[in-house]
Amino acid sequence: MEIDWDQVKKKTLWHYEKLIAKLLDVLEFNFVNEYYAHDMIEAGLYSEKIQQGYLQNGREADFVNEITVNFKNLSLLGIRNYQDLVGRVSTKSDCEKFLQETGFSFVALIQVLDFLFRWVLPFKIPIKELVDTMPYTNATYLELFKDRGIRSNLDVLENFRSEMGRKMFTTETGIDVTYILQLAHRADISRLAYVRGKTILHLCGGGYNTLDKLENAERKIMEADMTAYYESIGKSFADFKAVIPLDWMIGGAKILPKIIEDE
């Protein structure tokens, strides 16, 4: 069994402890455990959906095939779900013990953990990235959110994915429920792999302000809509397409679990 901890940062851009901490942080959210409650066989099937959705069955097909095999092998080892896996390797010593007892490859483990972090689980971003995309934001809103522990996109989804949660927050703070729903939809879009605040801002500017609209978008119509939007702000749509292709976002929206309860 060969373990090279330096390879973790080279592969994932994070040291092992930081990568695990980030995964555990995301896995603490109730909605994540509800909507991403995959056992290892389901995880393999979801990885195939990721290939079909984001990657359009094209590039990185071999990589996704390896991931699927890794999930199957983890299932044979008795791993129940993502939380069980990350919990069993939550420290370097736990990781070493797991690998020694199971014979599972260190390289394969890091590959799986990185895949979970980048492709499967939602990525945590500060709530300011979402608030900055919203029109008509009152200067006090950000502090009202933070005072109530809503500091990230994942906190927004945890609290505002249901109509009841949004109405309760409106009653407590006076922030219009329509604003809260729009914020929840922006947080929902942020679950797309590699999509962050600036991308959300431009998608919403082009009229694609919910995952449902992205999922049902027609490629040519969306390109025309986004081109018109970019021209209206004096920029080139080509720069946007170069960062995250439309097919990527449309395909990704089709595979994400649906969690927002609209009015």
Helices and strands in order:
Elements: H1 6-12, H2 16-27, H3 30-35, H4 40-53, H5 61-76, H6 82-88, H7 92-102, H8 106-120, H9 127-131, H10 141-147, H11 153-160, H12 163-173, H13 177-189, H14 197-205, H15 211-215, H16 219-232, H17 237-243, H18 246-255
Helix pairs in contact: 2-6, 2-8, 4-5, 4-18, 5-8, 11-13
Low-confidence segments, given as residue ranges, are none
Number of domains: 2
% residues in beta strands: under 5%
Question: What is the helix tally?
Answer: 18
- Rg: 20 Å
What is the string of helix and strand elements?
HHHHHHHHHHHHHHHHHH
User: Structural class given helices, strands, pairing?
Assistant: mainly alpha
Query: Biggest β-sheet: count, sense, barrel?
Result: none
> Which bin fits the share of residues in helices?
55-70%
Number-wise, the strands total 0
Overall 3D shape: globular
* End-to-end CA span: 54 Å
Average pLDDT works out at 93
Structure, explained:
Helices cover 67% and strands 0% of the residues. By secondary structure, the protein is mainly α. The protein folds into 2 domains: 6-120, no CATH class; 127-255, no CATH class. It is globular and about 55 Å long. The N and C termini lie far apart (54 Å). The mean pLDDT is 93.
What is shown here, in short?
The protein is mainly alpha-helical and 263 residues long.
